[in-house]
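Supplementary Data S3. Sequence and structure tokens for construct A.
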Amino acid sequence: VIVMLRGGMDGLTAVPFIGNDILSKARPDIGVNKPIKITPNFALHPMLKNFKSLWDSQQASIFHATSIPYTGRSHFEGQYLMESGGTQPYYDKTGWVGRALEGLGVKGLSISLPMPLILRGGEDLDSFMPSKNRLPSDETLKLLEKDYKNDEFLSNVLSTIRKRPIAMMEPKSRSDKDMKGLAKIAAQQLSDINGPSIAVFDIGGFDTHADQGGDFGQHGKQLQQFDNVIGTLRDQMGHSFNNTIIVSLTEFGRTMNQNGGSGTEHGYGTAILMAGGLLPKSRIISDWPGLKKKDLFEGRDLNSSVDARSIYATIMARVLDTDHKKIVKDAFFNSDLPDMTKRIFG
């Protein structure tokens, strides 16, 4: 389950470094005052209560100080690249999940219009917009297959529906209650033996140039939405959650220092939050670069020590039960992306 966090999720707010006072001095008005300590050096934002519960049950991990390979600080370019998996904005017309599925002969179908870039493959792009978020029942699919068993085109469409990933996209006006509703629908579909293996959520609102807040405020509110999606999936998926991994995806992080409007500007390094029963234990995974000025990217941002695409390729290979090198070849243009299996699943 991929949860896209649009706007630049602040990894230093979601998972603040508490090993010294550098961060608190850099953010006197937007620091997290009551972080939930999880290691001697790191803590969680207080809105991540479900994530903390999963951490306590050895079902959550964090890959800190990572980012996609983009340093241009443009939302439009960054979000395009986080979905395409490439390195040149607007160059690739397909997404890394779509290409991975296509490489395995699995077609994608979106229940949002239009299909998000991340799910687009090179061909067979199908979209289905259900009424009131209802999907065709298994009985309906069986009847259609029986009545049109000689129709090759329809047979292919029905096969697509059965294997589809699902996209749970969030309009700008969608409330937290609606996101929980979408998560409940996704949980039902993901738990179905004939349902999809992949779901994509989309949560916006992380571009906090002013009044970002610390324990509360806009950034904390958006983190709470992410946390509620995780909690709903955990509560609704039953035993299927044991075979699930949820990962966050964002275009970049935020600057370490607060600005004059008690917010942060576009940055670079951030954190990937992971949860689910596929994780063997809870831990912080990081080649931590440090927060001293000499360690910051361009003297202002948390640096990235690992290409985030390595992490996503490793997770996709595990979920789809295929080889890491194949995912890298199919989804990420055969880039030099090391296998992170031992670090994430070892």
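Construct B, processed identically:
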Amino acid sequence: MKDIIIVGTSKAGFLHFKSYNKLKNVGKIFFTDVKENVSNKNIKVKKIYKSIKETLLKNNLNNKNVIVDICTPKEEFYNIINQCISLGINNIIVEKPFTTSKIFFKQYPELNILMVQNYLYSNIINEIKEKIKQNNFNIKMIYTNFSKNRINDSLNRRGMTKNNTQNFEIEIPHQIYLVDYILGESNKKEIVFKEQKDFIIDNICIEKHGYGKIILEYDDKIVIHESDLVTNNTIKEITIVCDEGVIIKGQFVLYDKDLNKIKNGKVVIEKYQIIIWEKEFIEDDNMYYCLKEYYENFNNTDMLGKYRERILEFSNIFGKIIE
């Protein structure tokens, strides 16, 4: 069993904490936060440590038997990773959007670092992948839309440190790795169009934060990602256009900020606007499935290689998007 140190006590930290608590044979779970307090009222623990080092020393933890799970704004990722390296901690999970290069992995060959890509473990996505394979559907276009009302979080600068967070850094990373997963290897990935609009509420303006759209070419396929963070509608869906009038639409299970379910998920297949197959999903705990697999595979060389390739694939396209 490995012990877990979660760095950060916001919504992401709470979601990870809740998932780890469902695991069997899990070690002890600790929180660190430089503020030494809890950002999310749902996190109920006795002690918040001010650093990873303090957590190790005061609990006599073995650095080789610890997983550090980074749930902070992305500007802090590499600072925390460097702390782990200096403390001899090799097992790291980091939230999106984390980007790196082959040079970094060659420099630290013993470092096992995994980026959270929880939507790859969604029942909705796995059902879509299976239907595409079973029916040999030929994909022509993919449209994703992950939109929500993030006004209060943005006004409170959730996920931001010194720098403002771009729209492209919030929901669109999920959308990018989802399409990479569905389409598989591609010889060409080109950005055709991208735009971000400012977040403007009253006299507050956060540049490039409110709305984002990206259009890409994956070989002969068109991919469109859209995310509106100032809408009153919560939307998490993917639409796949195939040959012969076939449309596959996946709507993810929706939860509120306290992780209470507000809407079931669904996969629908239409042909020329007639539903030919559909399935509803009342549960889709993709974060649990993701972290369970990660936790169980830190000693699996083959799986660690696969996770590393996922990070490099994501880094390649995401780096071009935010440059």
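The chain has a mean pLDDT of 93. DSSP finds nine helices and 16 strands in the chain.
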